Model the fold of this input.
Amino acid sequence: DTEVTQTPKHLVMGMTNKKSLKCEQHMGHRAMYWYKQKAKKPPELMFVYSYEKLSINESVPSRFSPECPNSSLLNLHLHALQPEDSALYLCASSQPYEKLFFGSGTQLSVL
Amino acid sequence: SQQGEEDPQALSIQEGENATMNCSYKTSINNLQWYRQNSGRGLVHLILIRSNEREKHSGRLRVTLDTSKKSSSLLITASRAADTASYFCATLETSGSRLTFGEGTQLTVNP
Done:
């Protein structure tokens, strides 16, 4: 299994809602990532988990809260988002120093 | 902040022609990777070249790396309409945790 599965594929939420994005991989990868991508822009790193511990937080606002319940799962909890947070959210996983495997992303719209 | 710049931003060629994309970066790296993205969905890894390597081939892809100039190039030979996509270079910092993407090149291959 060489897939990274992200759910949901699309999400529309209001600014007062709480929602979660989910990501799962069964490749035994020890690093997992969240990236944010705006249209016609490159992916921007948000968070990195290494061996289930948060190793990088790229000064992301606290309305985004990552969680790594186990080595196969990665969540991104969303609360009180702003319209400018609308973007494609990409999850990825890898072995240390190796290529990343990306999920197909969650297209998020904040109204 | 983004690590690198890509050149050109957009490239339009005919089927059968070769496409060359260039990437520059700013800091020391462990490796440099190239990814492809169709229609704003998940990224697909194409090729990885380590900092002690100068050239690498994979099928119709050829990647070079010049660490003294902090630059890389991706050559796609005998292009096909199906190669139409956005191509991103990404650099892995020496700690191995942060993979940062360049601005990307939009390649259009006309039938």
